[in-house]
Amino acid sequence: MRILATSDVHSPKHLSEFKGSLTNISNVDLALLAGDMVDGGKIEYYSIIINLLRNKANTIMAVPGNEEYDDKLRTLKGVNGLTLLNDEVLTVNGIKIIGSRGVLDKPTKWQERNIKGIDELYRRRLEWLINTLKGSHEAILLTHYAPTYVTLEGENEYNYPFLGTKKLEEVLSDSRVLAIHGHAHHSKTRCVKLGNSVIVNVAFEGVSSPFIIDYSNGEVNVIEPREYSKCKEVNVRSKTTTPRSTGLDEWLK
User: Fold this and answer.
1) What is the Rg, in whole angstroms, of the alpha carbon atoms belonging to the chain?
2) Which of 22, 23, 105, 215 has its CA 20 to 30 A from that of 236?
3) Each residue of 144-187: pLDDT tens digit?
C-alpha cells in the first residue's frame, strides 16, 4: 500500500506551499491527514484540501487536530470525499486503521481552562488506544499528538508532555504498527523504529513536503522526503532531567 501522509498545513497559512508540493507526487492508495490541516477552525478550507488530493489518492482519511475544533467536527464529517476518524477503527485494504486526536501527558493551560474533564478524557482515550493496539501486528495508528517523545527531538524538552505522550511507547514497542502523527513542527527526528513499530512525524511545517510511505506486509519504507528514509532505532527509556519552561504551554491548544 502506497500512502501519502501529512499534517499541520494550517490552511490557509501553508495552503499554496502544500499545493505546490503535490505537483510531482504520483497516485497513492491512501492519504492520511494527521490533524491541523486548517487553522483556527476554518473548516471551509478542508474542501480545498480534499479537492487537491482527490486525483492523487483513492481514499482520504483524517483525524482532528487541536485546530479542528470539537464544535466543527460534525461539519468536517460531512466533507465530501473525506473519512474522519475520531476515536474510531476502520479497515482499508485489509489494514486496520486506528484514528484519534491522541493524548497529551499534560493538558495545556488552554485545555484546562476551556475543556471540562480534559484529564478524564485523556485517561479514557489512552485506555482505549492501549486496548486497541494490543496484539496488533499489521495496523496503522493515526493521531495528531505524538504517541512517543522520541519524534519530538528538536522541540524544547519541557514541552514534550504538552505535545504528546510516553504512555503508548510500551504497547507500540510490543506491537508491529505504523504510527503516523503531527503537531510537532520543530522536530528533527521524524522517523523512529521502536521495537517492531515505526513512528513517523509527518508535520508539513518544518519539512514542506508530504511523506510518501510504502506499507506492505507490515514493512515500512519511507520514500519521501528522502532525508527521512532511514529511521532511527530507539529503545524506550525514561528521561531524568527537568528542562526549563519556555511558556509554550500557556498558548498551546
Assistant:
1) 17
2) 215
3) 999 999 999 999 999 999 999 999 999 999 999 999 999 999 99
Looking at this protein, which amino acid is placed at residue 188?
K
Q: Which of these, 174, 91, 96, 186, lies nearest to 146 by C-alpha position?
A: 186
Is 2-250 a domain of CATH 3.40.50.720?
A: no
Instruction: For 109-129, write each residue's pLDDT tens digit.
Output: 999 998 999 999 999 999 999
Distance CA 206, CA 209 (A): 9
Q: Which residues contact 217 (CB under 8 A, 6 or more apart)?
A: 138
**What's CA 55's distance to the chain center, in Å?**
23
Q: Distance between CA atoms of 77 and 39, rounded to whole angstroms?
A: 17
Output the furthest CA–CA distance in the chain (Å, rounded). Answer: 48
24: helix, coil or strand?
Answer: coil
Collapsing DSSP states into helix, strand and coil, what is residue 108? coil
68 with 146: CB under 8 angstroms? no
The dihedral of CA 179, 180, 183, 187: what is its sign?
Answer: positive
Full DSSP string of 137-176: SSEEEEESSBSSSGGGBTB-GGGGGGTB-STTHHHHHTS-
Return all residues near 240 (Cβ < 8 A) that are at least 6 apart.
Answer: none
Residue count of the chain, please give it: 253
